[in-house]
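As promised in the previous annual report, we have extended the structural survey to additional targets. Below is the entry for MFS transporter.
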Amino acid sequence: MKQHVSQNAIDSVSANMEVRKFGFRDKLGYLFGDFGNDFFFVLVSSFLMVYYTDIFGISAVTVGILFLVARLWDAVADVTWGRFLDTRKTGKQGKFKPWIFRMSVPLVISGILMFVKIPGMSDGFYLAYAFITYIVWGTLYSTVNISYGSMASVITGDSVERTALSTYRAMGGSLAAVIINVAGPLILFVNNKADASRFTLGAILFGILSISCYMACYRLSTERIVIPEGKEQKSNLGKTLKGLLRNKPLITILAASLIFMICQMLLGAVNVYLFKDYFGNAAALSIVGFIQTGTVFIAIPLAKPLVAKYGKKEIASVGMLVAGIVYTLLYFLPDLAAIPFIAISAVGMFGYAFFNLVVWAFVTDVIDYHEYLTGLREDGTVYSIYSFSRKVGQALAGGIGGFALTAVGYNSTLKVQTQGALDGIHTIATLVPGIIFLAIFMILVFLYPLTKQRSMQLTTDLANKREQKS
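The corresponding structure token record, generated without further manual editing, is:
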């Protein structure tokens, strides 16, 4: 019965091609894609701000402006690249994965260049260098990440298999995160201070790992869902936009993901200052990274049976509620030492891990819903719109992070921050994410319409529409 649903869900596969059945190789290949992505994404999210403030000597508010400008530009680049992908024909290796192969090397090189400091240059030079290298890296990241994200919906059309891809993608990102967050502080800091040469060394090491993962993703992944030449539809921007505006699941998940990304980026950036300055223990960031990844791996075997029984929306909502309660509680416990703080926050990390595990399956669902509304299969465009919201979230988080640190009185030239600045950093790292997680809980419960039952009905209705067209 499951096999029957899986075959109906697939749009159309070329009858003249012998395509390997979906299996562990696909899941492993998709894992490697986000493994490669997140070596630099997590490095940038967690440590680029402190690199700019403490090594380049750029003020936190200026870094915030840089992040805001760059992420807004990247958001535009995402949509542009998504539309570009939807105009490409499917080749021998597929429609999306060849672009991972072509663009990954330039992406990794640009990532390394972000963390290179040329000695003896002026403050103006370092500011210009930061703007140029960061924006170039972000643009190239769009070309690889949009191609990779769009590929999920053509690897398989089965909803259970797509949830597996989402889980393995989260697993890949978590593996990169644990390496960066555990090994990163040990490599990048010397005597509790950011070191320029160590940052360059770390970027090179992570760059080598990143490109290796991209090549594994290219070799192991298989695109199965294709549109035969005779049935391929031309892009209709007006129809696409109308469909996007009518797509309530898309709009809702865009809002939830945007807010979630703000929280993730904010936590990643502020945690450095929280442990470096508030707790006086930058090395404890390694413990945080290890535990954060550990909670994901604990949640992984639970996600599939819980989704099968209750649905993606349902388990993600409960996870957000738990995270919101935990981080709000931490705000009211300002005298905790670093280790008890980490122990309590681990419960919150476990809560939001479920959202991370299923979010990419949400995206494939809204891609299907777009096809149901419009009759157009536009994986690249819809995924790029989703990525657009995440980039806006990154932009806001980067800007908010820099402005918030400045507002609470953080001063990178001081060896010891004022008590007011330390209290402000604690608030940003606890109460703010607590409120954000609770807001996402409300969005999922009251606004996102695709419950378990409605998602199953969508699969059936879409399969019927495809059969009527064939």
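Strands lie at 189-190, 193-194. Confidence is low (pLDDT under 50) at residues 1-17, 229-233. These points will be discussed at the next consortium meeting with the crystallography subgroup.
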